[in-house]
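quick one, 540 residues, struct below
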Amino acid sequence: MMKLRHNVGLLVLTPVLLIGATAREAMATKVGQPVNWTVSAPLTTTNPSAANDATAADIVTQIGQGLYRYDKAGKPVLADAKSVVTSADGRIVTFKLKAGLRWSNGAKLTAADYVYGFQQTVNPRNASNSAAIAKNIHGANALVTGASQDFASLGVKALNEDTLQLQLDHPMPALPSILTSTAFFPQNKAFEDKVGAKYGTSAANSISNGPFVLQQWNGSNTTYALTKNDHYVDQKQVRTQKITIRTITDTTTGYNLYQAGDVDYAVLGADQVRASQRKADFQIIKTGRTDFIGLNQQNKLLQNRALRKALQLSINRTELSKRVLTGSERQGQTFTPDGVARNPKTARDFAKDASLSQNTFSAKQAQKYFRTAQKELAGQQLKLNLLSDDDDQSKKEAQYIQSQLTTQLPALKVTIKSEPKAARVKAQLSQNYDMVLTSWGGDYGDPMSFLNLFTTTSGLNIVKYQNAAYDKLLATADNQHADQPEQRYTDLKKADGYLQRDAPVIVLGYKSLPTLQRTTVSGVIQNPVGTLDLKSVYKK
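---
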């Protein structure tokens, strides 16, 4: 595709869901009807560096763009950049930007805007979830940890207005995929200086370089709009003048709005799936997100491996998917979901290749581990709480898990605590829970984007898992084996095995979204890590 040496990494799978599109439509330039879309959570920010949740990442992807963007085949292709050259040792990567790049206010977009954007992501004040994936950029780690405040030392330089150069400490096989992330979008310093602390808090305090411009968002309202950005460098590919976004947190509400013709897309709950699965507009959308139960290692009971294994083996995940999640959850044992990477030698999917069969449901094995735990925890009350979101689907899933655990392990008491999503996220980040029902979607298409979560120093290690051997495997994959695909793959496979054997998390499966979408709407892309892209959406 290009001179960038991304072929040295894992072979990333390319299938992406291009919902309802045809090749003829993708090439057409006819302007479509306004689209009415839904998202499942409120928009919190349009600051690319701080877009830490799925909704923020989705919206920032519509109004922004980086050096790369995923195409409809799930392949990271050049976007703001027109060419890229990598040095022989893989450590110097030089991009030439396209001519005519502009911000939505008409200001010229230059390589300096990219330098500033990268600097903002590694600036601790932005608390970017993606800061850790920039660590191989020279100087980034010192800035992220606060050891340095000299942002000019970051290995991201503007050689001139249209030339950007990255200096890496080690080759980065997944760099093209990484650079699709909002965290590595350019940012306009002049605009941010003008609006100050209000940056990213409303439509008026947002600026775009992507397909659309945000309108009608005051920072808290649940309905807003995306309108075509006439300054976008690839504006001819944008076929919709306006997309209205509605925040729908309840699947019943979304379903009713869809049935009434008020929205063109709705995510379904179990009851709606049963009523819709034979309809032409019903679709299961595969995402690169892992659903799991986090087991807080700061809880003295859960520090016991035998108890964690008993919990892991007590849950019938096949039944969970069929009965509670109506078949929308894909089965798997690895924390890295299917569709992310393949064995560079055999082309076998990582999720199958790294799976340990001994972690499947087994009441007998669960009870054996539990008896061991009871002996080791003698005298302690075996009581745990399970934290979940307070929507209907999450409550049903939590109740099923509670039933499974207490049925297989009768001496264990499990109580459910349901919270609004924002409160649940806050609790899990501060380790204010015993067990938490949650999920994780990678920032880029590589197992490292999932496994890095549980390194000892990760700020997003919500379970506080600590394993020196695990940390070493990931460090070796990132450094010594960065340009040795088979060795790197083996490192990552072994690391995922540690999570399966130690059970700091219980993988429930890989999320798929059961949805309804108008058959008149095409061109919607869900990329390999689950981020939505409406750039080419078209409604007849």
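Residues 342 and 350 are 5 Å apart (CA to CA).
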